[in-house]
Write the structure tokens for this entry.
Amino acid sequence: MIETFTFPQFSPDRSVVHVGLYTNIKNAAGLRKRIIGAAGMQGEEGDREREAVNFAFVDARLITSRLHLQTAIYQAILAESQNALRTRTVHSEVLWALNPTHNITEALRRYGVSETTTALFVVRIGGSVVPDIQDTMDAAVAGTLQSLNSMERLTDWAAIKEYYKLNDEGALRKPKDEKKVVDNIVISSVAMKSVMQ
């Protein structure tokens, strides 16, 4: 149930993205520690460990739709292609793109894996279809792989409204479909973030 998105407008080494949705995460604290540790490791061992966790780990509670996630991925690849990354990697840039503020630490804390994470999108940005990508994801994340179609039941709409400061938003006063309005606002915010600095 890994989904593959292609962005043919980008260079071949960045045009293919694999996304898996994992629930019932059992190793969130260990995974977070592993990601932090890999960043500081030296030599071949460090290279192997960084490759093993070379993903964007995105808290599924804070994603409103497939398009929301795809927009953040697109913005991260675009920033990298323009040599305009604000973070160290294209994968951490996905988290930065999702966060409504420009604070990188806050983006990693809010949208990345934490000790209490129970559901994650695992995103690999690369240049080709990887036949064993699920095995690589499974090796990093102890959880249950789900269809991306089940993402809506995981969304924490109250947290999203709080982070995006939408609780007093006029467009949300008695809309017919509040979730659709919030989804449109956050997608637009992610899409416009890089030009609104």
